[in-house]
Amino acid sequence: HNNINFYGNFILNILNDLSKMEANPCNYYFLDYFSKMIYFNMSNFERYYLHNNVSLWYNQYKPYCKNILIYFHGGGYFIGKPNMFVYICEKMYNDIGERCNINIFIMDYKKSPEYTYPTAIDESYDTYLKLIEENPDSNFYFYGESAGAHLLTQVVYKAIQNGKKIPKMIVNHSPWVMSNIGKIESEYDYASKTHETTYLNN
């Protein structure tokens, strides 16, 4: 199992580098092929369909779960599928899943160049609202890396602007953000004061 994870992601990393070096359609096809092949143990996952995106529940969806962690993967808004990042979610679940009564949701979103701004933001926001509707009593937590961290920041900001439920906590790993965030900080501070703050392990 560990060898499959290692070599599968090794191949994907090579293909990712190729896709960055040259905008060759062949690279898209190879990347898509391998990303579909490397699903690890799919008995641990449940697909979630919305807007022709295929997000994943790690370790199956558990109704009435107290906490839901939404993972936004990176890839420059250009590459990546949820199944390419399941090893990260597997580690997170093994560390905190049972102890914190948590579901992990791996967000899928459309990539460039086929889809342009703000498609990924709008559809991820719609998916988040759908999850809130389906799990009204759950606490939400966001984790993202690189472009995924930028995406989750945009989703949170849009939720604040529209007066929707915001996550209890966000974790941005190497985010794409601008330093001029005073306006966002002030709005987030205001929104935070209007929502109850809890901790993941409560």
Description:
The protein has a six-stranded mixed β-sheet, with helices on both faces. The chain has 202 residues and is α/β, with parallel strands linked by helices. It is globular and about 40 Å long. Helix 1 packs antiparallel against helix 2 and helix 4 packs across helix 5. It is built from six helices and six strands; from the N terminus they run H-H-E-E-E-H-E-H-E-H-E-H.
Short description:
This protein has 202 residues and is an alpha/beta fold. 45% of the residues lie in helices and 18% in strands. Strands 1-2-4-3-5-6 form a 6-stranded mixed β-sheet, with helices on both faces.
Question: What key phrases describe this protein's structure?
Answer:
disordered N terminus; alpha/beta; globular; 18% strand; 6-stranded mixed sheet; 6 strands; 202 residues
Calculate the terminal CA-CA distance, rounded to whole Å.
33 Å
Secondary-structure-derived class = alpha/beta
Mean pLDDT: 76
Q: Rg to the nearest angstrom?
A: 17 Å
Q: Uncertain segments of ≥5 residues (pLDDT<50)?
A: 1-7, 194-202
Task: Determine the oligomeric state from the structure.
Answer: single chain
Helix fraction, binned, reads: 40-55%
Shape descriptor: globular
Strand order of the main beta sheet, please? 1-2-4-3-5-6
Strand content: 15-25%
Q: What is the string of helix and strand elements? A: HHEEEHEHEHEH
Q: Figure out the total of helices.
A: 6
Please give the number of β-strands: 6
Biggest sheet, open or closed, and with what strands and sense? Answer: 6 strands, mixed
